[in-house]
From TrEMBL:
This is HYR domain-containing protein. The keyword Repeat applies. InterPro entries: HYR_dom (IPR003410). Keywords: Repeat. It comes from marine sediment metagenome. The keyword Amino-acid biosynthesis does not apply. Residues 263-348 form the HYR domain. PANTHER family: FI04643P-RELATED, HYALIN. The lineage of its organism: unclassified sequences, metagenomes, ecological metagenomes.
Amino acid sequence: ATDPVFTATPADRNITLDRSCQLTVPDLAGEVTATDNCTAPGAIVITQSPVATTVIASGEGTTHTVTMTIDDGNGNTDTFDVTLTGDDATDPVFTATPADRNITLDGACQLTVPDLTGEVTATDNCTAPGAIVITQSPVATTVIASGEGTTHTITMTIDDGNGNTDTYDVTLTGDDATDPVFTATPADRNVTLNSSCQLTVPDLAGEVTATDNCTAPGAIVITQSPVATTVIASGEGTTHTVTMTIDDGNGNTDTYDVTLTGDDAEAPIVICPPDRNENVDPSLNFTIPDYTSLASSSDNCTATPTLSQDPVAGTVISGEGTVQPIKITADDGNGNTGECTFIVTLVNVPAPTIVCPPDQNENLDNNCQFILSDYTSLAIVTGASSVTQSPVPGTVISGASTVQPITLTAKNIVNDSVECTFNVI
């Protein structure tokens, strides 16, 4: 009636749980030894309950009792309880993870970390999905110094609460979407036109300063269109737009328009007729005519400058030998004038007279032609400084019985003229 006695018993232990959070009971009989008063140790029957390989639903820290029994075969037994504790050693598993993404940078070129935990789902062998703890590092709303294309790693962690975790890295890339800002811009201006009425675009880039959230001021690219030294057809008061562009190198730009206005500052050129003598009338008076038609003018911007004279046409001057300066002024209509002066001297010169020779009979040559001679010396002339002939000497006439009128013109020094005509037969 004596029970057998345990001489060695299995120790309590942790059992690693499987992916279904189940515990498989190990075979503990081999760890038991016993003695009995009547039964030899090898004949003592050792059993356990639950038996080895039994699968039990469990959990982290869940305890299960396995009862060891020794039986001497004579109706005498003893028992010993072994405690098995569930040990969850399986990491949770991500079933959905956040995608890598670009994050728009703020005005200080900083990136604010978004909350990515809501984009994570996970499963675990022992912990329900809703109980899995999801965290991220850096945490949401963390502000990080960044830059265009700069990458930052956000580590997502899932924790089943049983000491098992897994991680997943999400890459955030800085995206600079902020345009640079002008801090100084060129003023609108007048630009003096050249002699061809063209405007040369000045270099305005040096008058621009700018700032940007990510790009240093010295690295901001400043351009203009049209570029400096471009030559543009223009005119007085004509406006031209030069567009200044600032570029931060990250695909962000801003523009500013500068207005250039053509300024014609070049005086027109006027060329006066040569000094001249003018003949007084019998009262020794002379009425100044309009001499502007005898002057020529040109201008860089105005095709035909307006000409005026001083004294004006119609002014009466008197006296033989009077010397009268005549000023011709050209006005281009753009506030610019040019002038020249010539001298009119009053003279008292009698009108010339001329008496033509009688009609002249001339013989034709073998070709039935005749070359006109110079007949001016045959005229009787008084008070003339020059005598001309039309047609001119050397002109060939032909044909029997041809009658060719010849006109002789006498002019005095003040360009008074008189003419007469005779025939060459």
